[in-house]
Specification:
By secondary structure, the protein is an alpha+beta fold. It folds into two domains: 3-79, Phosphorylase Kinase, domain 1 (2-Layer Sandwich); 89-262, Aminoglycoside 3'-phosphotransferase, Chain: A, domain 2. The protein is built from nine helices and eleven strands. It has helices spanning 3-11, 48-60, 89-99, 128-137, 146-162, 202-211, 216-222, 228-247, 252-262, and strands at 15-20, 29-34, 39-44, 68-72, 75-79, 113-115, 118-120, 170-172, 181-184, 187-191, 197-199. The strands form four sheets. The protein has a five-stranded antiparallel β-sheet with strand order 1-2-3-5-4, sandwiched between helices. Strands 6-7 form a two-stranded antiparallel ribbon. A two-stranded antiparallel ribbon has the order 8-11. β9 (181-184) and β10 form a beta hairpin. The longest helix is centred in the last third of the chain and has 20 residues, at 228-247.
Length: 264
């Protein structure tokens, strides 16, 4: 059975066209067009079932995410969401307030995830600094050079001084950069490509500052806790370390700069 035949059997409508979609560096999505006018996005791989669960979790909060139609046998089919890039930071803020409603859950997720070959450990914990130390810093130890390993170990020891022990557990998008935030006609249309887990909502804010420049009014409307800016370097280290492992030396300077700011 061909790929198109399989999708036709699931959708109940003939496939009339499609194309590869532009995406992030780890890519991998295609637009599928049907005779009845519907447009879906198809993704294949070992982790698409996990992605489907994250998208459903986001939708359940009331924040917009593509509707998942199928997620079995390494195939994910979901609605295509039109986007024109006309930003609407206020609507994103409102959606994040829905996403971040405190929940009765440990930090972490029910399973690990991955960015390409880089595993994202999500072992659950009731102690936030310990979760961040084990799953977002020390997990890189043997994958980076020795000097970085030692600095990450020193930082991990200091986390109880730098991070709150038990911030309200919130569902995070987990990879909240501009490419994963779809705007259309000045409003948020959908959050896509999540790497979700339960954690401190300031993590998503840090990710948004790496490659994007939200206005000050956006962060004010998020109503983050006092001192949030001082914690941003700790949280930015995680995606920077992932990028260092994925894309190499060009990200080393950014990693070192955050460690310098933190004094380790």
């Amino acid at each position: 059975m061909t790929w198109a035949n399989r999708i036709e059997g699931i959708s109940g409508s003939p496939v009339t066209g499609g194309r590869k979609l532009a995406g992030g560096d780890l890519g991998g999505a295609a637009l599928v067009e049907f005779a009845d006018g519907r447009q879906w996005v198809a993704k294949e791989g070992a982790l698409v079932l996990h992605e489907a669960g994250m998208l459903r979790a986001i939708s359940q909060t009331g924040a917009p995410a593509p509707t998942v139609h199928y997620s079995e046998n390494q195939l994910l089919l979901m609605d295509y969401v039109e986007a024109d890039g006309a930003k609407g930071w206020e609507s994103l803020c409102k959606a994040l307030h829905l996403l971040y409603k405190p929940r009765d859950a440990p930090y972490g997720w029910y399973d690990d995830y991955a960015f390409g070959p880089v595993v994202i450990p999500n072992a659950q914990s009731d102690n936030w600094p310990d979760f961040w130390a084990q799953n977002r810093l020390l997990c890189h130890g043997e994958k980076v050079d020795g000097s970085l390993t030692r600095r990450l170990e020193d930082l991990a020891k200091r986390l109880p001084e730098l991070l709150p022990e038990s911030p309200p557990p919130a569902l995070l998008h987990g990879d909240l950069w501009g490419g994963n935030v779809l705007f259309h006609q000045g409003r948020l249309a959908a959050l896509i490509d999540p790497a979700s887990y339960v954690g401190h909502r300031e993590v998503d804010a840090a990710m948004l500052t790496l490659f994007d420049h939200p206005p000050a009014s956006f962060f004010a409307a998020l109503e983050l806790d006092a001192g949030w800016r001082s914690r941003q370097p700790v949280y930015r280290l995680w995606p920077l370390l992932v990028h260092l492992r994925l894309f190499g030396h060009s990200y080393r300077g950014a990693v070192l700069a955050e460690l310098d700011v933190l004094g380790v």
